[in-house]
Amino acid sequence: xxxxxxxxxxxxxxxxxxxxxxxxxxxxxxxxxxxxxxxxxxxxxxxxxxxxxxxxxxxxxxxxxxxxxxxxxxxxxxxxxxxxxxxxxxxxxxxxxxxxxxxxxxxxxxxxxxxxxxxxxxxxxxxxxxxxxxxxxxxxxxxxxxxxxxxxxxxxxxxxxxxxxxxxxxxxxxxxxxxxxxxxxxxxxxxxxxxxxxxxxxxxxxxxxxxxxxxxxxxxxxxxxxxxxxxxxxxxxxxxxxxxxxxxxxxxxxxxxxxxxxxxxxxxxxxxxxxxxxxxxxxxxxxxxxxxxxxxxxxxxxxxxxxxxxxxxxxxxxxxxxxxxxxxxxxxxxxxxxxxxxxxxxxxxxxxxxxxxxxxxxxxxxxxxxxxxxxxxxxxxxxxxxxxxxxxxxxxxxxxxxxxxxxxxxxxxxxxxxxxxxxxxxxxxxxxxxxxxxxxxxxxxxxxxxxxxxxxxxxxxxxxxxxxxxxxxxxxxxxxxxxxxxxxxxxxxxxxxxxxxxxxxxxxxxxxxxxxxxxxxxxxxxxxxxxxxxxxxxxxxxxxxxxxxxxxxxxxxxxxxxxxxxxxxxxxxxxxxxxxxxxxxxxxxxxxxxxxxxxxxxxxxxxxxxxxxxxxxxxxxxxxxxxxxxxxxxxxxxxxxxxxxxxxxxxxxxxxxxxxxxxxxxxxxxxxxxxxxxxxxxxxxxxxxxxxxxxxxxxxxxxxxxxxxxxxxxxxxxxxxxxxxxxxxxxxxxxxxxxxxxxxxxxxxxxxxxxxxxxxxxxxxxxxxxxxxxxxxxxxxxxxxxxxxxxxxxxxxxxxxxxxxxxxxxxxxxxxxxxxxxxxxxxxxxxxx
Length: 833
Fold this sequence. Notes:
This protein is of the alpha+beta class. It has five domains: 46-346, TIM Barrel (Alpha-Beta Barrel), CATH 3.20.20.80; 353-422; 432-447 and 597-708, Jelly Rolls (Sandwich); 454-591, Jelly Rolls (Sandwich), CATH 2.60.120; 743-829, Jelly Rolls (Sandwich). Helix content is 17%, strand content 32%. It contains 15 helices and 44 strands. Helix 2 links the parallel strand 4 (47-52) and strand 5. Helix 8 (276-288) runs parallel beside helix 9 (333-346). Residues 1-25 and 725-742 have low confidence and may be disordered.
């Protein structure tokens, strides 16, 4: 009966679409949808998706990232398509290296996963200019993301180009490829009101344009409450199971396109956190309320290489994702979500074909059940929505304990196989170790100087706007003017100095007067504008004022992005005998970039064009530094620690690994980011060229080349956590019963072929703390370390049973009334070390 109802909904959906989904003939593969789910070649499925962006890691990392995503239980990979990466210059296209979109999608298919392609073409993504190429700003009469003919012309041309490329490579599912869904536009509801009726017309146009391209797969719009049919509206956020009002058409499925695994960080931010327990609770709740697709944004964030980050966004991106910036598993987030996917997959038949019912026990406790009439297909979600107090639910004659703010999943409506609050997967910590091979770096330096006015070839009455001046070709532009004083203009007292004031629209600047460094000022992600004020020395005669305008990425959000501006706007000198002097309209000369950039000092060829001197302990602002280092030992990821530097750029073998900014401290008094990823793919065995452009002054002798690992592994489990389900009887129409469940235990596994060389901590009792900082409570078995070493020492994997009999017999247990916890911390290493 239920199967007939869903089939009917599918037919209704197809009638609504009126064939506009471009589904191929009945004999070929198809992707359709109805109120319950996507229907892929006639089959329903639960979709567990993760965002991995191809430009944020080198191609050499893609296979391993995808392998780990698959092992984490994902069956879909979501990625944006980056317009300014693929068409940096109008009409000139780039699909090479980490811009090889086709290669990335084919690799996903090789790993047996589907693809959701988010074309945008505005993507936000904390990516420079939200993915829109700079040249688009210079199209006459353009208004971004509005019912504006110039914008729509270029947008459609780009989207069609990408779609045609995908069709040519046969990458859409009806062609035999992995792409099952595409997205047009991105979170438009947040700005739509700013464009009034033009916004409404634009979003209708965008939907019609996308559907007209006949990809054969559905289109979605995220955060678009009234997505035009047949485009599906989807949810972005942290708790879409509670905040999403649902699809705007009863024939559309409920999908979550961005489940934020933490929060991106900007320079000046403290660490971003989101617990694995909170994510798993939100996902379980979403699927318990008819959800069909959940996408983790991000599953692997990666790195904003070069100048690709948006304004003030840090170089490290979504490091708190299940796979961290280096592609290492962040535990327990990775493992806890993998276990969640297993539990939900065990419930798949009930979720997709069962009849949903809900029972509210009280204000906090509820039961949601999916059951197929006339069969034993049944799954239940027992929820405790109280964030502080645990509870107990009686379900079908049995009591179930529910920790605070948790959901238990019962794939057979009998057995708890997963609780969102109870983590059974292992934990780990990330370690940065100085490389044994890349030590004793010999630094050389070359100092930039304020350019001579004759080098500046752009003249204007006032300082030019910085975005338009640089055209996204450099972070830097010089502004120089001169003014003549006689003695009567200057202060009479030698202890009183004039003050220069620069009102800037952002993002940062460095000031020089008569070649003397005056200071550095900057805005923030929240408030880009700032006022720079510093005392200056002036002299009778000609005085030169030089400002270096600095950008930290272009904007990536909001309405009317084409009308955003940056750079110095008003310049005055205060404290002169005649009062305040306005230099804003004093005839300025400009130059884009710095001479060192144009010489490409970050390359071997460019570095040979200037004379380098041995570097001292601390160098002045605007100094280039270079050194050589050998590739660090082993195969673990590599990073460079910049703690003793200020702000600037890093290159390795001529490749930019991004901006650094360590003297912009978070409210905790520490840099937002100190370590910067150097992909091993960028390295040679020996003599790797490392070049630093330091803007504000720093000490290069403190820079360290590091090897990164997650070789400290831990387990922290309680006697209350569910059993470890090994297998299920899938006879008949559904999941009948647990065939085999093993006693609870601490499972530990070293990465790769490493083994547990040392047990750093073990306690069976009431330990406290977290991985890397455990402590003993007032109850612990004296046999804890001995038992754990017997089970784990020297092994790649081990299980320590959670059993009082193993740790203590009845006479030895000094605290039998205590609910026991087993905490273990082990250190992994290769057998030979």
